[in-house]
Amino acid sequence: MSPTLPLLHTALNLSASGVPVLPLRRGKLPFGNCRTCAGNACGGRPAMKTAGACACPRVCHGWAAATTDPAVITAPAWAPMWRTAAAVAYHPGGAGVTVVDLDDADAVAWARTALPATRTVPTTRGEHWIYRGIMRSVNAVRPGVDIKSTMSYARYLGPGTGTVTALPDTVRALTAREEPRPARPAQAALRLPAPTGGGECPHRAPAYLERGITMAEQRITSATSAVHVTVYRTFLAVLSVHGRCGCLTDAHVRRLFAAAQAKGETARHCTDAWANARTALGM
To answer: What is the model's pTM?
Structure first.
């Protein structure tokens, strides 16, 4: 098969830089398993960590078929897929990165105030924000936001702009499923640590903190279920961005607590959730 086909050419360039690739069919989906691999009867790909090893030469098992081997990418068994492929995909975790998939304008607006800058790639409806580092993949961590890293795939839509930066705790916090048990007894009154950044937020203008607190209040207020988890994850996100710079004040924390209590949380739970979030971030 000639490597001059556009998608195949893109795939080979990516694989040469260490990015595992695979073709996608219409609908942004991987090609289906062949009959031998249907129902994972073959034992699966080694990358899937299942018993056995699939020796099928076709593009089976979705993200686990992604490879950097040009001999596989240009093999005759892959040729029909490249001829009908609609896009090139890659395995972010295999490339050592995490993709924050922002599916609409609201999600992009949230990211611009809540996440540190990194390389961005425009998509049909939103953007991909790419960070250096891997984590588990989770869909719908908040409205319009998916996390794609290990055991997942993302469309390749171009090199993007900006410099890839380290995966922040803010993104990891989005996948927290439940609040851990208190690591220590809650204190009667919440006491924030002494500022370590001169009392000013070093990230951006002071308005950055105000927007962050306002969005955190809105996130808690808009929760329709799993309020405990939402409160904890929101506290974790705020602390991961501002907890070490000394810009948070008691007034900011009281606003977050008030939003949580308006959803039915007790003052004790708010204090425990805040302490647990600080413990999870090593504060």
So the answer is: 0.64
Give the pLDDT of residue 192: 44
Q: Tell me how far the alpha carbon of residue 202 is from its chain's centroid.
A: 24
pLDDT value at position 149?
94
Compute the chain's Rg from CA coordinates. 22
Two tokens at 240?
């991961």
- Looking at residue 248, its pLDDT comes to 78
Over pLDDT 90: what percentage of the chain? 43
For strands 127-132 and 165-166, give the pairing: parallel
Find how far residue 44's CA is from the centre of its chain. Answer: 25
pLDDT mean over 114-132:
96
Query: Taken in order 200, 201, 202, 208, is the CA torsion positive or negative?
Result: negative
Q: Report the first-to-last Cα separation within the chain, whole angstroms.
A: 56
Please say whether the beta carbons of 98 and 141 come within 8 A: no
Tokens 């990194």, residue? Answer: 118
Q: Are 141 and 174 in contact (CB under 8 A)?
A: yes
**What is the C-alpha separation between 41 and 60, in angstroms, rounded?**
12
